[in-house]
Each structure stands twice: as structure tokens, then as C-alpha cells.
Amino acid sequence: MSMAESLARSVDIVTPDLIEVRRELHAYPELSWHEERTTDLVATWMDKSGISYERFEGTGLMAEIGPDGGPIVALRADLDGLPVTDTSQDPWRSSIPGVSHSCGHDVHIAALLGASVALAQAQAEHTLPVRVRMIFQPAEEVMPGGALRLLSAGVLKGVSRIFALHCDPSLDVGQVGLREGPITGASDQIHVQLSGRGGHTSRPHLTEDLTYALGSLLTQLPAVLSRRFDPRAGASMVWGQIHSGNASNVIPSTGELSGTLRMLDSAAWHQAEHLVRGLISDIIEPFGVSADVTYIRGVPPVVNDFGATEILRRAVTDAIGPSGVASTAQSLGGEDFAWYVEAVPGAMGRLGTRTPDGPTYDLHQGNLRIDERAIAVGAKVLACAAVS
């Protein structure tokens, strides 16, 4: 029996338990930096599998297994949910009001737990050829994310390569989308607080008409950025929140805008903050209002290393067959796995979660549904990637 077959057999044995743990995670999601119950559940699985681990300060943990000496291969999953209401009617829907695993991190956790069990079995049979580090990371959904804290704590010490999977509800279950080079986008958050002299709407000339200034910023910043960035950078400025005033006949003295700036190109990302701050100042200058700009640099693009991508391709082929390999395009979604692959070679694949001929859902939506067969697929791929 080949190593891939042995790992797949171990995953198949625990797949019913992996589905149950995923449902438990889904029912009790926790927000970034508050994943205490989730970390406890992961620790319990490590204890049952006889895998040594170290809990991080706060939440998250790192487990390690395999022979000493030589390079270490790392596998990563993220733990946090989102402040999104679960609108599904599944029996295991979220029991926490306003919080859900609407990005599929419950699937990521369950898949890495399955890979850990399979690798532990290989270690028990003295067939595990490499040391593997399993990273269960908190706070992927916030900026700055948990990856930076773990990196500063030395989580990649001795690591030669790192792999991860992310749910993709546009791919059928049984497929894993692969791409060499950039696979996600850079993502930053922008918050602008405007202040100015308010007054009555009958006398706008005696005010600094802050709401009008907000409207100009709302439309002009995305428009001007589209002409200041190289179009090949794929920059996209989208506002998600705006607030100004509480009455129709009052020009307010404060207002705010919040949004995200995403792009495909790393070089453009490094220039973005300086450009945005300058443009905001230029746009609001005629109105006489003042701006307090909070610019949060989020993440660069995840850039998949060629060699690591080929290892992941071989892992998909070994785990589920050549038909499991799918091509995938670069997206503008942000992912703090980018920080890991800036430090060591690595690759992220997109784990298909759509039931064939079923509906296509979207991430970060409360109605997200996944085909739970994806859990075993992810577990087998991660385990095979570790030993390929």
C-alpha cells in the first residue's frame, strides 16, 4: 500500500467524526482573538491522537509530529468566524447570534484535524518520513491578522514549506483549484472621519456642507484611483459603510466613510497608502472640512511558489486522482496566509465545496452551505502535501 493510500484510509476511518466536529464548530463559532472553545476542541483532538502541542498566548495552537532533524513541513488552518448571521436551517446552524462560520474556517479546521490523525497513524507505523507542524491560527478575518503575531513568535522556525486550503463554493467537491503565482489580492481597510462647520440646510453657504464633501469623496476617490494606478494592478476601491447626519434639514458637523482597497499587484500595494492619503486631502480641500484618515494595511497577495504548487498538485493527484486538479484565477479576496509565503515557500489551494449540479453560494454570506465530503478531500490533500 502506498503512503497516499495509507493516509487516505486513515482519513476515511475518522471521516464521520470529522463531520461531527465540523458541525460542532459551526454551531459554536467564535470571533477573532476569542477562539477559546475552538482551541480547546483542537487540543482535545491532539490529546486523543497522542500529538504534542503548544498553545499560543490567548487562542490558537501549534502541534508537531514526526522524526527529529531535517526540514519541517507546515500545514495551516484558521479558527475564527465572522460577525455574520447564519441564515441556514441546518440542525447545526450557529447558536451564537450574529456570528457564523460563513467563510468555511470550520471546514479548514476539520480537514487539518483529519490530516493530523492520518499523519499520527503513519508515525505510529514508523512510516512518516518528515516532521510536520500543524498551525491552528487565530484571527484571520481581522487586520492585522493572527499570522503576523504567530510569525513574530517563531511559528515558522525550521520550516521549509507551508501549505493551506481555503473553501471555494464555486468549485465542485472533489476538486482543488491550483495556481502558480498570485492567487489572492492585497487588501487594506480605509476609514475617513470628516469634521466641519454644520448648520441649517437653508443656509449651506454658511457651512462647510460636510455631507456634500462625503458624497464627493464617496464617488471621486474610487474614480481617481482608477486613473492613478496602473490598470494591470487591478485596484478596486469599494465603500462598505457611510454615515452622516440624523435629520433631513440639518447639515451635520461630522461624518464617516469606511471601505476596502484591494489590488492584484504587490508593488502597487506598497505605494497605495501614500497615494490614498494625498488624494483624500485633494478631494476635500475645496469644502474646507478636515479629515482624520485611518489606513490599515492588511495583507499582500498570496503568491504561490512554483515548487510548492507542484507539490500540492502531486498531493491532489495522489489523494483524489488527476481529475481533482482544477485551474483557478487570482481573486481580490485578502488572506493573511500571504505573510507565511513571504517568509518561506508555500502554496494555498482552493477546496471545492459545491455539490455537483447544486447551487453556488458565496463566502461571507449567512446562507453558505458546503458539501461535507470536502472535509475528507481536504484532509487527504493536506496529509499528502506534507509527505510529498
Structural class: alpha/beta
Find the count of extended strands (DSSP E, 2+ residues).
Answer: 16
Gyration radius, rounded: 23 Å
Kindly report the oligomeric state of this protein.
single chain
3D shape: elongated
Broad CATH class of the largest domain: Alpha Beta
Cross-sheet strand order for the largest sheet: 1-2-4-3-5-16-6-15
- How many domains in all? 2
Q: What is the CATH third-level topology name of the largest domain?
A: Aminopeptidase
The CATH superfamily title of the largest domain: Zn peptidases
SSE ordering: HHEEEHEHEEEEEHEEEHEEHEHEH
Q: Please indicate the percent range of residues in DSSP E strands (runs of 2 or more).
A: 25-35%
Helix content: 25-40%
Report on this structure:
With 388 residues, this protein is α/β, with parallel strands linked by helices. It folds into two domains: 3-183 and 301-387, Zn peptidases (Aminopeptidase, 3-Layer(aba) Sandwich); 186-299, Alpha-Beta Plaits (2-Layer Sandwich). The chain is built from nine helices and 16 strands. The strands form four sheets. An eight-stranded mixed beta sheet has the order 1-2-4-3-5-16-6-15, with helices on both faces. It has a four-stranded antiparallel beta sheet with strand order 10-12-8-13, with helices on one face. Strands 7-14 form a two-stranded antiparallel ribbon. β1 and β2 (61-65) form a beta hairpin. α1 (3-27) packs across α9 (373-387), α3 (105-124) packs across α9 (373-387) and α7 packs across α9 (373-387). It is elongated and about 80 Å long.
